[in-house]
Amino acid sequence: MALQAEDIADLITTTQRDLGKLRWTDLSYDLQEYIAMPMLLQKEKVTFQSGHGIQWNIMTGTSGAAKDVGLYEVDNVNVADVMTTANVPWRHLTTNYAIERREIAMNTGAAQIVELVRIRRNDSMIDLAKHMEQRFWSKPATSTDTKRIFGVPYWISYGSTAGSEGFEGGDPNGFSGGAAGLPTSTVSNWQNWSADYTTVSSTDLVRKWRKAATFTNFRPPVPGNPYSSGDRYGFYTNYDVIGPLEEVLEAQNDNLGNDIASKDGKLLFRQIPVTWVPQLEGRTGDPIYGINWSSLRIGFLSGEYMREEGPRAASNQHTVFQTHVDTTMNLYCTDRRRNFVLATADPDDAG
Predict the structure, then answer these.
(1) For residue 89, which of 16, 82, 103, 145 sits 20 to 30 Å off, Cα-Cα?
(2) Do the beta carbons of residue 208 and residue 167 sit within 8 Å?
């Protein structure tokens, strides 16, 4: 059935009523803040690679060559295999929009209320941001899922029993072969820090947070390895954690003045802002993720970073023009030990 102007909801909405020239209120998104999409749009914070996936080298131990010796002692040179390779596959995301040639003609001149093409593009990009945020803070349920990116819970897993803490974040749930193909049964140092807390207080959560930040602050004894250097920390959690911590902050400050919410939005941990992540609202365990962005990175296939193609005429609709935006990427972690999660229960989300 051929479409007419009255059948096209966007056209009717944007040209029929006087809502103010070239302006609109955007109610299309649900979260107050998005973390993933802004990071993707900052090219200096991502890496670009080629090949059929992302691959990097890991040194799992040393050969034991160092020893105490006496004068004229005979040399005994030890050579051992100390390297292994980690890798993750590429994952692909797409978004698109279309417009009918005659829609453009009808939405110009005095009848133009908003730029219809701009609305369509905004729609597609906002939808990508919403989709990306959900994927970024979750993980595939099992290794059989060949479409979803390896989000934060894949790399920073919760492995604590009640009251315990340490390098217990082992293989992500559903991935018996280990994160990036390295099972922790083979590479014991391939685990993130994980701790179980009970209350949001200075003697429980904050105390364990301080310990986690200290024990994951690895500094290589021999400089020159780019994978083991750099400290770009970020701390991410939900409001059930941030709200009580702001109250703790107020309680330790006697000079608050007349502002009953003087510490709102000012929460820091080791001089680094604690970021509220709306996507983590309602997440089981009220997790706090300590991420070292020098080790947890976003990799893109070269030439496939937010690649926009079009507008091109649709193959079977000669008056319809389509535009596609494609991305090939994944998250990868070069050193899981430099990251941590604190939670009251397993926050793993494979939804």
Answers:
(1) 82
(2) no
Continuous segment of H or E residues that includes residue 211: helix 205-215
Beta bridge pairs of residue 309: 324
| Cα→Cα distances 121→34, 128, 303, Å | 18, 11, 21
Written as six digits, the tokens of 194 are: 């994980």
DSSP of 292-318: ETTTEEEEEETT-SSEEEEEEEETTEE
Pairing of strands 233-237, 192-196: unpaired
The residues, any chain, with a CB within 8 Å of residue 188's CB and separated by 6 or more, are none
Per-residue model confidence (pLDDT) at position 155:
96
pTM, to two decimals: 0.84
- DSSP type of residue 101: H
- Residues pairing with 53 in the sheet: 89
Backbone angles phi, psi at 103, to 5 degrees: -60, -40
pLDDT tens column, 53-88: 898 888 877 777 888 888 988 888 877 777 788 899
Backbone phi, then psi, for 24, in 5-degree steps?
Answer: -155, 155
Q: What is the dihedral sign for C-alpha 323, 96, 304, 34? A: positive
CB neighbours (10 Å) of residue 88? 21
Q: What is the pairing mode between strands 233-237 and 272-276?
A: parallel
Phi-psi map region of 273: left, alpha, beta (phi>0 left; psi -120 to 50 alpha): beta
- Report yes or no: 121 and 323 within 8 Å, Cβ to Cβ: yes
